[in-house]
Amino acid sequence: MVSLDIALQSKFYANSPDKVLGPLSFRVSPGEFVALVGPSGTGKTTLLNMIAALETSAPGEIKFNGAPLTDKPDCKIGYIFQQPRLMPWLTVAENLRLVKPVANESEIEAILIKVGLGGKSALYPKHLSGGMQRRVSIARAFLTEPDLLLLDEPFVSLDAPNADNLRSLLSELWVEQKSTVIFVTHDLNEAIQLADRILFLSAAPGTVILDTPVDIARPRLPDDNRLQRWKSDLLSDYAGLLEGVLSAPVLKSVSRR
Amino acid sequence: MIVPALKQLLHSALPLAILFLVWQCAAMLMDSSNFPSLLQVFASLRSHLVDGDMLHHLLVTLLRVLLSFTIAMLLGVLIGIMMGAFPRLNSAGDSILIIALNVPALVTIMLCYVWFGLVEAAAIAAVAINKIPTVVVMVREGARVVDQDLLDVARVFQVSPPRYFFKVYLPQLYPFIMASARSGLSLIWKIVLVVELLGRSDGVGFQLGTYFQFFDISSILAYTLAFAAIILVIEGLIMRPLDRFIARGGYHGQS
Predict the structure, then answer these.
(1) What ipTM does this complex have?
(2) According to CATH, what is the number of the domain B43-250?
(3) For chain A, percent of residues with pLDDT exceeding 90
C-alpha cells in the first residue's frame, strides 16, 4: 500500500496555451479507495497519467509515501484503462505474464478463475467479448498486486449487468489486496458504490471543488436505497456539482454523516 | 479435409497451367529458336540438372541472396526503427535516404566492385546497400504509427526493456517487416543476378551471361525457372508460416 500526495500548480499540454489542470491538491491514504468525478475535459485522465508517470509533472508535485515521483516509481502501479489495451498478438496467459513474468500456470489460472475466465488462458483477445477483455485487464492489474491501482472509467460502454458484475469483482479484489485506488468516473452511482471518498472536479481547468467521504457501510449493492438517498442529498445540497460548478462556496473535506 | 486442399491446389495451379499452355502454343506457332517451347525449356532444365553444374550455381546464388537479404533486413529494420522513433534522426537522415533510394542499383554495384575489388564481400555489400533503403522506408512508417497506448501499458507495468521490445514494440512492426521481406526477396535475387553478371565467375547471373553470349534462350529460361522455383519454395516454407505467425490473434498491424 502507498500514500499519495498531489500538489499541482498547473498542467498544460505541450504546444497548447490552455491550462488542463490545477491548482489541485489532495492526499490519498494507504489502502484508500478514492473516486474522481467530474465533467468531460477536466483533466481526470491526464491526472491519472501524471500519477502513472505517463505524463510529465513538475518535481515534487506528486509524491508516493512522501517521496517525489520519478520516471520509474518505486511502488508497483496497476492501471485499468478505459479500453482493455490487451496485446492482440498475445494469448490471455501471455498478456498476464507480460506484466508478471514469474507468474506460474496455477497463479495465472487462479486469477482468471477469480475474474470468471477459468480455462480461457490460451485464447487470443479477439476471441473474447468486450466484457471478457475488460476482465482480463482487471486480472492483469491485480496479478501484480499493485500498491497503487489507477482506474480510468473502466466500465464505460458496458451493458448494465456486465458493468455491475465487474464492479463487484473490482470491489472483492480490492478488499482482498487493499491497494490504494484512484478511480476516475463520470458515473456518480458507481463512485458512491465503490469509493471511500469522492473528489469532485470543476470544469476545465480541473480543480477539486468538493472532497467528501462516502460514509455508507459496505457491502454496497447497486440497488441499495442508501446509495440513492446519499446521492440525492448530495445533489440537493450542491446543485451543478456534476457539471463541475458549485453554487455554494467551495467546500473541502465535507463529511456528510 | 482433402477436398478443400485439392481445391486450394487447383486454385493456385490453374493460372500457372494456363500460362504454360499459352507459352507452349505460342512457341509452337512461332517456331523460333529465340522463343523455345516449354518442353524444350524443361528438357534443357533436366540436362543442366543431371549433366551440368546447375545445382552448384543455384546454391551459390541462393547463398548470396540469403546473406545479402539477412544483412539488408537487419540493418534496414534497425535504421528504420531508429528513424521512426526519433524525429530528429529522421529529419537528419531523410535526404540521405531519398538519395539512397534513387541511386541506380547498377551504379552501386559498379562502385562496390571498383572500390572493394571483384570480391565476394563487394558483391554482397552491393546487393545489401541496394535493398537497405527500401526496408528502412517501410519499417520507419511502421515505427511512426506504433500504438502508444500499448506502449503505455508496458511502461506503467514496468515491463523489462527486452520484453518491452520483443513482446510489445516489435510485434507491431511485424507486418511492415514482412512486407519489406517479401518485396526484398524478389528484388534482391534480381540484383544478385546483375552482380554476378558483372563481376563473379559463378552463380545464376554468371551463367545467364554466358548463355546470352550463345543465344541459348532455353538455358536462360531453364535457369530462370529453376531459381523462381526455389523462391516459391522459400515463400511456401518460410514466408507463409511467418505470415500465419504474425496473423495470430488476428493482428495485422496498421498497414
Answers:
(1) 0.88
(2) 1.10.3720.10
(3) 48
